[in-house]
Amino acid sequence: MIISKIAFRNIFRSKRRSLLTGMMMAGGCALFAVTIGMIDGSYGDLIDMFTRDRTGHVQVHKNGYLDRPSIYKILNNPDFIGNKIEHLAHVESWAPRVYTPALAFAGKKTTGVRVAGIHPVREVRTTRLRHKVEKGRFISDAPLDEVIISNGLARVLRVGLGNEIALIAQGVDGSVANGLFKVAGIMGKSEGSSVASICYMHIITVQKFLSIDRGVHEIAVVLTDHPKTMKAVELISDALDEPSFDVEPWQVVESQFYRAMQADVKGNRWTIAVLTIVVAIGVFNTVLMVILERTREFGVLRALGTRPSQVFMLIVLETTYLSIISIIVGTVAGMLANWWFSVYGITLSTPLEFGGFLFDKITAQITIRSILMPAAIIFGTAVVVSIWPAGRAAWVIPVKALRTG
Amino acid sequence: MPGEVIKIDNVSKIYSTEGIDVHALRSLSLGIKKGAFIAIAGPSGSGKTTLLNIMSGLDVPSSGSVLLAGKYMSEMKGSELSDFRRDHIGFIFQAYNLIPVLTVKENIEYIMLLQSVGEGERRSRVAAILQQVGLKGMENRLPKQLSGGQQQRVAVARAMVSNPDMILADEPTANLDSATGAALLDMMRELNDKNGMTFVFSTHDTMIMERAKRLVLLKDGEIDKDEVRG
Questions:
Q1: Lower Cβ count inside 10 Å, N or C end of chain B?
Q2: Residue B79, min C-alpha distance to chain A (Å)
Q3: Nearest to A2 among B85, B86, B113 (CB)
Q4: With 60 as the cut, is the pLDDT of residue A136 above it?
């Protein structure tokens, strides 16, 4: 108890040094909190952007579809599957899709495209695809011969609203599928290159086009909360209990994005490691200075009968108390900064493409991780770097220490 | 000899500095009885401080033995030696060496707190010793708020309050003016007479030598003169 009391009061002995060390720890803690908050916020936004804009959090396909997409890998009863999924925990909604590669012609321009047949009503409930339409309108509820294309595709084919494009593909019955479709809407610039060649059409129009009756290639499921994805995959797999189906999370569906994100996370770990080293050096330097300046005092404590372990605790406790105060200050500052960034964000002058998606604003998120992780790192670092100087203080030779200073 | 608090037997201390051996103490033997008020004096380099350090277990002799409270000091190490010092030896340093962040009361209590003495016992002992050293009413002051003489009184109180077998005082008056030093010594002598506490001084100060009941003069690490006064 007395050792703890001395340790606490010692913090206020050299106010300027304690203030500087405390500021370094508090600053490090706040910086960690903001870094983690921005990472969580940015990835959260990105994940939310592409899962809610397009892919969903979970997708159901026929076995092997993701690795080798084929118009023949069909889920024959999408409503039956959807009904089974709809009432499961964490599931918000679902939407069926049909895909086929096709050749698109407009005038003298030709390009390869990916046709996506979507259910307009279910798609609106499930994703934000409708909000991507910048010119014209979204797919009508009735199956008309119309198409929505990306801005990029419109440029390649040199078409505008009301123009027609010809699509040629192969039907599942071996026939050549072809037709003319009117451009009803053009999607905006917020989609990156990976989705630039998609043509969206009514699902029934595409099913007829490919002669696949009511079958679909994909069921996209959106969840109430993306961190629940793995749990939802388990629940959906159990509910469907169909070995010929693949139930995959967004991490598998968008593996390119996920890998890019993981690589970025690793990069951020280095940032955190560098910050930790800077804080560690600062704290170590301060504690060592304290030990050198107070060698005589430790000699006196030892002469009076203070055990080496008690002197050791004295130093570790001094660092601990200073780090606790600094962590409280740093955490509050970090949370305030994260709150500010979560509300206002950082607007990028040029949108960045990440894993096939464009984003123009970075926002932060206040998460448990952004509060606990910086506190744990700063606290752990401070305590660890105080161990060696504390050992040095504990094992001073009293008779030599009393001769110093 | 019966009644001896400490028995120093044939102690030598050799320091090696850059390959040269310096004999700080040479086969020195000394016994100190309980209730002694003894001054160990001598010129610089005579071995006073070395003797005090060996008596307290802060330093180890090159040969010979020191027996205090029935235990040979050389047989103890680390925490055991710390606990032994805490329980059997009181220290008064030349530069007071109070713990700067603790108040007068807390400084006096420090050793008792390490000994886990109960709060009631601590309070009554602190009150009594504050009265004895004339610091009543100053218990909540910090060392920096006290004069040198007052700080040394706190050091005396700290050394005495846990009732050690022996109090070792290394030049306790060196940083004090003569009037304050004399007053402090008179107080210690009075405490010695009243409480029977054993005081061992290492000193140059004639005031201490005059007040000592026994004077041991060292020269070149050996006892030159051992005089017991009435």
A1: C
A2: 5
A3: B113
A4: yes
Instruction: Answer whether B83 sits within 8 Å of A309, measured CB to CB.
Output: no
Query: Does the pLDDT value for residue B186 go beyond 90?
Result: no
Which ipTM did the prediction report? Answer: 0.89
Contacts of residue A5 in chain B, CB cutoff 8 Å? Answer: 102, 106
Q: What is the structure's pLDDT at A193?
A: 47
**From the list A6, A309, A399, which residue is nearest B53 (CB)?**
A399
User: Could you tell me the two tokens for B198?
Assistant: 């054993």
Indicate the residue of B83, B101, B111 with minimum beta-carbon distance to A9.
B101
Task: Identify the CA nearest to B225 among candidates B209, B9, B8.
Answer: B209
What DSSP line would sit under A14-75, residue for residue? Answer: SHHHHHHHHHHHHHHHHHHHHHHHHHHHHHHHHHHHHIIIII-SEEEEETTTTTS--TT--B
How far does B141 lie from chain A, in Å, by closest CA?
15
Q: Which domains does chain B have, with CATH numbers?
A: 4-228 (3.40.50.300)
Closest-CA distance, B90 to chain A, in angstroms, reads 7
Q: Is the pTM of this model over 0.90?
A: no
DSSP A189: T
Highest-scoring range by mean pLDDT, A226-240, A317-331, B10-24 = A317-331
C-beta atoms of B56 and A5 within 8 A: no
d(CA B109, CA B101): 13
CB atoms B97 and A9 under 8 Å:
no
Chain segment B152-177, per-residue pLDDT in tens: 889 989 998 888 889 999 888 888 78
Contacts of B59 in chain A (CB under 8 A): 399
The 10s digit of each residue's pLDDT in B96-124 is: 889 999 999 999 999 999 999 999 999 99
Closest approach of B98 to chain A, Cα-based (Å): 9
> Percentage of chain A surpassing pLDDT 90?
43
